[in-house]
Design a protein that fits this description.
- This protein is mostly helical and about 170 residues long.
- It contains seven helices and no strands.
């Protein structure tokens, strides 16, 4: 399957720049992985400089904005859910890391778990991915992957102690 190349001129538009993950989505190989990598500095900036409530507001705002961003860039490219659109991976990773104390181990584990769920698309992600279209569809499968990875992260924190969580159960 051939993927339509992304014109670099799109990066001049701030909205496309966001949906293309600040340019990380232009990677010819594994753009979703590079988009997720682009989320790590954003995660650190949010979690280390702001309260958890600000983090949650940023994630929620990014999700709502993502519906529009991903729809707009999909239309500009003429391709539904182009692999270069990685704003959904950025928000999915931020969801994965919700209530997780930052450390090298937690970031690496969150990255791996999110990518596994995003790539393999187990149920219900696969159903959403195949049935929901437009900007909502682009975002929603990664949001669910992020929630599934978040649940795994919380369980790992609770039962192994190799990472820490700020969530009190």
């Amino acid at each position: 399957m051939s993927v339509k190349p992304i014109p670099t001129e799109l990066l001049k538009d701030p909205l496309h720049l966001l949906s293309l993950g600040f340019g990380s989505g232009l990677s010819p190989v594994a753009p979703g992985t590079f988009g997720t990598l682009a989320a790590i500095p954003l995660y650190l900036l949010l979690i280390l400089t702001h309260s958890e409530i600000v983090y949650i507001i940023a994630c929620s705002s990014g999700l709502v904005l993502g519906f529009y961003l991903c729809e707009r860039t999909s239309k500009s490219l003429g391709v539904q859910d182009h692999p270069g659109i990685v704003w959904d991976e950025i928000i999915g990773f931020l969801i994965t890391m919700l209530f997780i104390t930052p450390s090298l181990t937690s970031i690496l584990l969150g990255f791996i778990l999110f990518r596994i769920f995003d790539i393999l698309k187990p149920w219900p992600i696969s159903v959403i991915d195949s049935r929901v279209k437009g900007g909502i569809g682009v975002m929603l499968d990664d949001v669910i992957a992020g929630v599934m990875a978040l649940v795994c992260m919380q369980l790992i924190a609770r039962f192994t102690g190799i990472i820490e969580t700020t969530l009190v159960l």
